Amino acid sequence: MLPSRRLAVPALILLLAGGCDADEPASLQLAGADTRRGQAVILETGCGSCHVIPGVPGAVAWVGPPLTEWARRGYVGGRLPNVPENVVAWLLDPAAISPGSAMPSVGLTEAQARDAAAYLFTIGAARLPPTPAGMPLGSSEGGPRPNPRLRPRA
Ligand code: HEC
After folding, report:
1. Nearest to residue 70, comparing CAs of 46, 92, 58, 86?
2. Closest atom, ligand 1, to C-alpha of 78
3. Residue 37, SS3?
4. What are the boundaries of each domain within the chain?
């Protein structure tokens, strides 16, 4: 491995650990988004008719995957690294990321999708492993990953 790469990951982790609040690393925050508004968007949109979503009353369905411990997930829809911008893209148009996905486009505005994604990343954020979601994993966590990609697999 090149020396620059060896230094880059610890440096990034230090950077993330430094300038942000303890529960949510900066990598999991979305500029301008509001987690409380996001919780309301999720409730009003009825995401809970398909998902288990901690903190959202009535969100106890098992049509789609449970969104428990969301901040710790590695991938969105099994396609993209689980970083906030990718979740926004997923919420706006799941089929654009995963053709044939059973999750419908639920008609959120971009602002609503950003708020909803911000809320999802509060779930499980307090129990994040040392490596934030969407970052390369260690060998004990499924092996090293290539650089996070921001577009779907071909
Ligand atoms: C009609 C049912 C339905 C509704 C309504 C719905 N979803 Fe989904 N959702 C699914 C299904 C099914 C999947 C799995 C799709 C896939 O992996 O291709 C999914 C996947 C997801 C994922 C990725 C899960 C993972 O493990 O990768 C997220 C995040 C998500 N939904 C959030 C939401 C949010 C937030 C809302 C409301 C704005 C919502 N969903 C509304 C059915 C639904």
Report:
1. 86
2. 27
3. helix
4. 28-135
Pocket test for ligand 1, best of 79, 103, 120 (most atoms within 8 A of CB): 103
Residues enclosing ligand 1, CB less than 6 A? Answer: 42, 45-47, 49-51, 63-65, 67, 76-78, 87, 90-91, 98, 101-104, 106, 108, 116, 120
Does the domain spanning 28-135 belong to CATH 2.60.40.420? Answer: yes
On whether the CB atoms of residues 26 and 19 are closer than 8 A, the answer is: yes
Tell me how far apart the alpha carbons of residues 29 and 72 are, in angstroms, rounded to a whole number.
Answer: 14
Tens-of-pLDDT digits for all 154 residues of the chain? 445 555 554 444 444 443 334 467 777 889 999 999 999 999 999 999 999 999 999 999 999 999 999 998 989 999 999 999 999 999 999 999 999 999 999 999 999 999 999 999 999 888 776 555 555 544 444 444 444 445 544 4
Ligand 1 center from residue 76 Cα (angstroms): 9
Rounded CA-CA distance 5/50 in Å is 41
